[in-house]
Amino acid sequence: MNIAIAGAGMTGAYLYRLLDRRRHTVEIFDKDPGTDCGIKPCAWGASRGYGELVQAAGLAPSSYILRKTDHVIIDGIRIAADLMTIDKSRLIRDLLAGAELRAGEIEPARYDRIIDATGVARAFLPALRDDIILPCVQWRLATDTPFENRIHLEKIGYGWSFPLAQGEHHIGCGSLLADPRVIMDETGWVRGEEKNVRCTCTGAIRLTAPQYAQPFVTAYGTSEVWGVGEAVGCVAPLAGDGIVPGMRSVQILLAQWDDPAGYTRALLKEFAWMEDERRVIDKLIKGEKLALAEAWVLKKNSRRMGMQVGLKEAALLLTHLR
After folding, report:
1. Which domain holds residue 285?
2. What is the pLDDT of residue 303?
């Protein structure tokens, strides 16, 4: 089988590595993202399950961990947490070790299967009717300023400040209702740090959820196209966590390699919890009143990322998203 992977971000690189270890012949295509770090967006946070997934690729998870933290401050509320930031750029490079990245267009006639790992672009799959795309802006700072691990919720979005290593911090913001640069200016997190900016970029995150990102498999010329990762909505709509879900979707793809219907069922089952988060986002967009059920969704699903959010805290934090 001739296989082409479209997209060499976290999910595409992980898929390449696992297919290569299984002795498949794979060609991987990508476009220059135009960023210093070589990725876009450059999310650095990883949630529970990261270690086992990286081990499955034959790499040492600990070697990519930049910082671990036991808490996060969300709008002044200290939340116990088991969080980490990782060197995503280096991990992607190691996953692609030995690969020849191709920059040209994919010719469908040359391949039996194209894997769409193009994230927000969803370049080889049909456009989505109920797509939700969160625009964001990001900075990487090298500064002595003691930034904490923190999150600010506002305008159906959030700003974040995560410690990396050697005095570096990743700071950014995304919002569905406002210019994220305006929100960040209001926080003051970057103000006065202009001389310490290592790089900055804009990007986007799909918050659609897999249930609203179908089909996952379709025809493209004479080839089959199978979507994976963010291209098929595998990003938590409330938290924006996509690294671990993207890698997990790769494992599901490999387990259902010859069964398109089975792949669809397995993805929907694995990420059914994302549909609950999507419903919360829909309510926020429509301006509808939030109830205890929505707070329960945030409480329950925050545990997946290692954050110990209580029910009262969840209810309060959801009001900050308005």
Report:
1. 3-320
2. 85
pLDDT recorded at residue 174 = 95
What CATH number corresponds to the domain at position 150?
Answer: 3.50.50.60
- CA 202 to the chain's CA centroid: 15
Count of structural domains within the chain: 1
- What's CA 285's distance to the chain center, in Å? 21
In contact, 174 and 134? CB cutoff 8 Å: yes
Confidence bin at 222 (pLDDT 50/70/90):
confident
Residue matched to tokens 């476009």 = 31
- pTM for the full predicted model: 0.94
Q: Which amino acid is at 169?
A: H
Q: Are 216 and 226 in contact (CB under 8 A)?
A: yes
- pLDDT tens digit sequence for 273-284: 999 999 999 999
Respond yes or no on whether the N-terminal peptide bond of residue 41 is cis (omega within 30° of 0): yes
Q: What is the C-alpha separation between 316 and 320, in angstroms, rounded? A: 7
Q: Which residues contact 293 (CB under 8 A, 6 or more apart)?
A: none
Q: Give the least confident one: 26-30, 163-167, 169-173, 212-216.
A: 163-167
In the DSSP assignment, the letter for residue 307 is B
Bridge-based pairing of strands 26-29 and 101-102 is parallel
- Structure tokens belonging to residue 2: 């001739």
Taking only the tens place, the pLDDT of each residue in 243-260 is: 999 999 999 999 999 999
How far is the C-alpha of 38 from the C-alpha of 33, rounded, in Å?
Answer: 6
